[in-house]
Design a protein that fits this description.
heterodimer, A: mainly alpha, 16 helices, about 0% strand, B: about 220 residues, mainly alpha, two-stranded antiparallel ribbon, about 65% helix, globular
Chain lengths: ~325, ~220
């Protein structure tokens, strides 16, 4: 046995903390549990199958890709589960499970593993999967909006209702508010989640609860979510319905859970503010002038494309102290 | 392994053909003319027509340049090449319009665009302007066949996945993954086929006992 050990040179960072990727990812997944439970209640237990399909697609794709690349299996770190879960929460409730499976698998394979796995992907894998589904299955992805069930009484089966943002887009603000007037008033519907929409986006209160858990645990900071909301508020301020825009759609899910992905967001505070503002402004522009009622998915993907530039433009500056060699 | 030609060396016909189809495949290896490779490959039939047109233009232009190369002033060679390509493209464009109007209605726009295809002028610049007629024709044939092969494989993949049919024959009832019929899916298809192409070539190289082409940055610099 030779006594020499290979000298291993690895790129930074060299500081370690007790937080590991898997701990963070499982906390993120756990903090989404209330939103999942609410989705299953208000749209029926069928959506659990969609959620499981998406997670299964992501996990299967990740383990197959790891095996093909002869890499250690990375499924246990929870990031694939997180991708599948987040993707499924942005899907309409009536999307069949196999479409969700394809979306999860595509997002992981061509959004993440092909770049080299966790930490190397340019684009948020969950949103890559969603964009792929939007292009491949336009009808289920834009028409599968189940009507929410009431607190008490039988669930409404196989009834579809357009989302508030779709109604706002096609019939104006008063029609959108009219569609929300059941369940104790529009604001109650929006905050509690008695409205049609994606599986996990409808309840502001429960998303805020999960986000609060992540904030307390130090997993995310408020910089990106607040910038996203500020950007959207700035664009929609004069549209007549800024409140509906800010409390509607996947904005909160996107701002707190999707735009804050460590890998695909900038690493400095200045960059994060610019990134968040860009995502918010693009969301508003797509919602008001684009072809879709909801724009957060494409806004995040376009924002992701700018992240390397933001990292370059908002580099931290080394402070030069007086008398120190320059 | 790209072919390295020394000055004055006489490459053989088979070597030139193989170079154009595999080693320096225009789409999968040189990554040239990707724009038409995305635009026309939604079906095998479209890829076939454009591929044949490019093959003809490449052979005719390379032949013309190889014959006239000693009279083309180096300072103005690019405009001269462009005019030569434009002449042949116009000839094929008019021939198609006269004899196959139905076909022309489908692909006429793309046939005119062949003038601007990078692969054609690049073969004139790097090969036909330096070699006599016969090797230039073989090189042009190899490159044209390589482009045709690429368009056919991309077209087959996108037609099966995006439209559920192959060469017009229906294989699946619906449109399985519409994504692949859209331009974004075209780029993904080319990238996936390019990866497969690299994999196959590496396997072939290992089987023939040649060392595989070095993988960029594989393993890093441990020690």
């Amino acid at each position: 046995m030779s006594a020499t050990r290979p000298l291993i040179l690895s790129p930074g960072p060299h500081l370690h903390s007790v937080e590991s990727t898997s701990r963070i990812m499982w906390w993120v997944n756990g903090s989404l549990a209330p939103a999942v439970a609410w989705g299953a209640f208000v749209f029926g237990p069928r959506v659990l199958l969609t959620i499981l399909g998406s997670i299964a697609g992501a996990v299967v794709a990740e383990s197959l890709a790891a095996r093909m690349l002869r890499r250690p299996a990375s499924v246990g770190d929870g990031s694939a589960v997180c991708t599948g879960l987040l993707l499924s929460l942005t899907l309409p409730p009536l999307v069949p499970w196999w479409i969700a499976f394809l979306g999860g698998a595509f997002g992981i394979l061509l959004g993440k593993m092909i770049f080299g796995g966790l930490g190397f992907n340019l684009f948020n894998p969950a949103m890559v999967g969603r964009a792929f589904l939007m292009a491949s299955f336009p009808l289920p992805m834009t028409a599968g909006w189940a009507a929410p069930r009431p607190w008490f009484g039988a669930p409404l089966d196989a009834v579809t209702t357009p989302t508030p943002l779709t109604t706002l887009r096609e019939h104006g603000l008063s029609a959108a508010m009219q569609s929300l007037s059941g369940h104790g008033g529009p604001w109650n519907s929006l905050l509690m989640g008695f409205r049609s929409g994606s599986i996990g986006e409808v309840s502001m209160v429960l998303i805020a609860l999960g986000a609060a858990v992540m904030l307390v645990r130090g997993i995310i900071r408020l910089t990106i979510p607040l910038s996203v909301m500020a950007g959207l508020a700035a664009v929609t301020a004069f549209s007549g319905a800024p409140g509906l825009h800010l409390l509607s759609g996947g904005l909160w899910l996107g701002a707190f859970y999707i735009a804050t992905d460590y890998v695909t967001s900038p690493s400095t505070q200045g960059g994060r503010i610019a990134f968040g503002l860009l995502v918010g402004v693009l969301t508003g522009v797509i919602r008001m002038f684009g072809g879709y009622p909801e724009g957060i998915c494409y806004a995040v993907l376009l924002g992701n494309a700018m992240v390397p530039a933001f990292n370059l433009w908002f580099r931290p500056h080394r402070r030069v102290l007086a008398g120190s060699p320059s | 392994m790209p072919m390295v030609l020394l000055e004055g060396q006489k490459p053989g016909a088979w070597q030139l053909l193989k170079n154009g189809i595999f080693s320096e495949n225009p789409v999968f290896r040189l990554a040239l003319s990707l724009c038409p490779a995305v635009a026309v490959t939604t079906t095998v039939a479209n890829g076939w027509i454009l591929g044949v047109a490019v093959l003809l233009v490449q052979v005719l232009s390379s032949g013309t340049v190889a014959l006239t190369r000693q009279w083309i002033l180096p300072q103005v060679r690019i405009p001269v090449y462009t005019i030569i390509i434009a002449v042949w493209v116009s000839a094929i464009d008019m021939t198609l319009a006269a004899f196959a109007p139905a076909l022309y209605a489908q692909v006429g726009l793309y046939v005119k665009l062949i003038v601007a295809f990078a692969i054609i002028i690049s073969r004139l610049e790097v090969f036909a302007s330096r070699y006599p007629l016969v090797p230039s024709l073989w090189d042009a044939t190899g490159m044209g066949l390589g482009f045709l092969l690429a368009l056919l494989t991309i077209g087959a993949m996108r037609e099966v996945l995006g439209n559920g049919s192959l060469a017009g024959i229906r294989l699946l009832p619906g449109k399985p993954l519409l994504f692949f019929a859209l331009p974004a899916g075209g780029f993904f298809s080319i990238a996936l086929l390019m990866a497969l192409f690299n994999k196959l070539e590496r396997m072939a190289a290992t089987r023939h006992g040649r060392p595989a082409a070095p993988r960029a940055a594989a393993g890093g610099s441990h020690g």
